[in-house]
């Protein structure tokens, strides 16, 4: 498909776009029970795109009841693997058929560059649905190696009603990372998108029904975390919550489980990822480009962002100069311009958070090497320059806390043991990277770093076939790969006595 539109054409398409804004419950759009709405704001200019249904407990009750009815009816949960596969493949095809509308909606809602939404977000979402559709009839159950007088079968059954709570930084992609395995395994889902970027989730519910998903199998309840999100996590008829978001809110999800029905809770939370560069790195240009894109891509609004550069002192200055140069080439621009590499932060609140961390870095003694300013303020949007701090110490806020913005902290080391200590000296353990030409060093350090993913001589490599998730307070469970299907199924043992 050719998406080589000019910025003017994308702006014209944006002016004509009329996004869906209601909740989607039992196969139809409806207003919130209260009739209340909230403003959905374009981060690039601060203007309201639409007013979206503000769902609360009553709406969640209706959505969960719909999901439960559909699950018990069995039109989806008892559908043959081939039948579910056919419908989910059609769903994936419809996502791609509507790629420009979905990418435009994502950019207007969240502020990311349109080129990224077109090339990464929508195709990645479609790939997730397609891949799990293809996996449905290729995952087998088991027969246990018991004695000849018994037959013990181990089968996987859908857990039931899944509450999926997804973040605002990759709204469509994160939703489909949950929907793919949850729907493939036969569950019914209530999806709660972030109030900061709910529009693509609302739209794809209609596409799912168009693809053949029975009413009630996928419901969408836009709203705030403290209303719709809390009601979903506390609901006594929700069997599982799959959450991606901050560690602070992830801990609340665990509390809500204990206060309700002990529902399974799967968490993908924050990160403060170390990008460890040794002095023998072969290609400094490649390492610098990966480090820059690792922190500046998606405006730094990634839980897996390479926010800590842990670099050997012998190459620090040379590498840092190259990273700063790449950062300068990624100056924030109009998200609807296909040439833009860095868009807007999602809202004023996130802008204030990021600039607050920049000020903390200055006040605690880090050396500002690049950026550090809000830019394009005349547009009304929320843009921050790619920012690099040198001489960062591990006790500083910018070294310990997740910023979720384009802010890099540079920390130098002399010895391998020191690099490992720095890498592990945070509460998170989501992703990490090691750059070295010594294969022994690469293996040794990769084993020592406590993180769910360790990249070697690359950063942010990705494929749906590999699991994604973290150690420590970065969460539990895994998205992507066949392992994600474990989150949405129960194991049942059926023991048959053959002795007679």
Topology (elements, then pairings):
Layout: H1 7-16, E1 23-25, E2 28-30, E3 37-41, E4 48-53, H2 57-73, H3 81-97, H4 99-110, H5 114-135, E5 142-143, E6 150-158, E7 161-165, H6 171-184, E8 188-192, H7 199-211, E9 218-220, H8 225-234, E10 240-244, H9 247-259, E11 264-268, E12 274-277, H10 284-296, E13 308-312, H11 316-328, H12 348-363, E14 367-370, E15 374-375, E16 383-384, E17 387-390, H13 397-400, E18 407-413, H14 416-424, E19 428-429, E20 431-435, H15 439-448, E21 453-456, E22 471-472, E23 489-497
Parallel strand pairs: 7-8, 7-10, 8-9, 10-11, 12-13, 12-20, 13-18, 17-18, 20-21
Antiparallel strand pairs: 1-2, 3-4, 5-6, 6-23, 14-17, 15-16, 19-22
Helix pairs in contact: 2-8, 3-5, 3-7, 4-5, 5-6, 10-11
Q: Any key phrases for this structure?
A:
single chain, seven-stranded mixed β-sheet, alpha/beta, five-stranded parallel β-sheet, globular, 20% strand
Quick summary of this structure?
The protein has helices spanning 7-16, 57-73, 81-97, 99-110, 114-135, 171-184, 199-211, 225-234, 247-259, 284-296, 316-328, 348-363, 397-400, 416-424, 439-448; strands at 23-25, 28-30, 37-41, 48-53, 142-143, 150-158, 161-165, 188-192, 218-220, 240-244, 264-268, 274-277, 308-312, 367-370, 374-375, 383-384, 387-390, 407-413, 428-429, 431-435, 453-456, 471-472, 489-497. It is of the alpha/beta class and 500 residues long.
């Amino acid at each position: 498909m050719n998406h080589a539109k000019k910025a003017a054409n994308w702006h014209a398409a944006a002016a004509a776009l009329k996004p869906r804004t209601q909740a989607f419950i039992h196969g139809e759009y409806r207003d919130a029970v209260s009739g209340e709405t909230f403003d959905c704001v374009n981060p690039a200019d601060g203007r309201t795109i639409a007013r979206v249904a503000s769902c609360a407990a009553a709406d969640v009750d209706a959505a969960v009841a719909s999901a439960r009815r559909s699950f018990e009816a069995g039109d989806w949960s008892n559908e043959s693997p081939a039948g579910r596969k056919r419908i989910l493949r059609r769903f994936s095809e419809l996502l791609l058929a509507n790629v420009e509308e979905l990418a435009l909606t994502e950019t207007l809602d969240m502020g990311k560059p349109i080129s990224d939404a077109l090339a990464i977000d929508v195709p990645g979402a479609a790939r997730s649905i397609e891949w799990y559709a293809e996996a449905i009839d290729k995952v087998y159950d088991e027969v246990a190696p018991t004695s000849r007088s018994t037959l013990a079968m181990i089968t996987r059954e859908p857990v039931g009603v899944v509450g999926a709570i997804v973040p605002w930084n990759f709204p469509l992609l994160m939703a489909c990372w949950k929907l793919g395995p949850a729907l493939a395994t036969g569950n019914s889902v209530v999806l709660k998108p972030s109030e900061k970027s709910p529009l693509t989730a609302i739209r794809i519910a209609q596409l799912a029904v168009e693809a053949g998903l029975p009413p009630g199998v996928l419901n969408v309840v836009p709203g705030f975390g403290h209303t719709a999100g809390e009601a979903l996590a506390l609901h006594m008829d929700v069997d599982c919550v799959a959450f991606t978001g901050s560690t602070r809110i992830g801990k609340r999800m665990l509390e809500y489980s204990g206060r309700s029905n002990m529902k399974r809770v799967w968490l993908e939370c924050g990160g403060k990822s170390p990008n460890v560069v040794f002095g023998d790195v072969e290609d400094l240009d490649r390492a610098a480009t990966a480090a820059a894109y690792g922190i500046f891509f998606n405006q730094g609004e990634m839980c897996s962002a390479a926010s800590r550069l842990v670099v050997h002192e012998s190459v620090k200055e040379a590498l840092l100069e190259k990273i700063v140069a790449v950062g300068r080439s990624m100056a924030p621009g109009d998200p609807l311009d296909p040439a833009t590499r860095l868009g807007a932060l999602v809202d004023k609140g996130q802008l204030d958070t990021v600039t607050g961390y920049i000020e903390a870095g200055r006040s605690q003694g880090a050396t500002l090497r690049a950026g550090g300013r809000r830019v394009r303020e005349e547009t009304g949007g929320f843009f921050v320059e790619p920012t690099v701090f040198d001489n960062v110490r591990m006790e500083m806020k910018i070294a310990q806390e997740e910023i979720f913005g384009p802010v890099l902290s540079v920390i130098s080391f002399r010895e391998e043991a020191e690099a490992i200590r720095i890498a592990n000296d945070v509460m998170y353990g989501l992703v990490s990277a090691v750059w070295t030409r010594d294969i022994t060093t690469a293996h040794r350090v990769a084993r020592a770093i406590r993180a769910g993913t360790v990249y070697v001589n690359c950063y942010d490599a990705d494929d749906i076939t590999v699991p994604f998730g973290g150690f420590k307070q970065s969460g539990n469970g895994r998205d992507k790969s066949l392992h994600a299907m474990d989150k949405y199924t129960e194991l049942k043992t059926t023991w048959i006595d053959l002795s007679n």
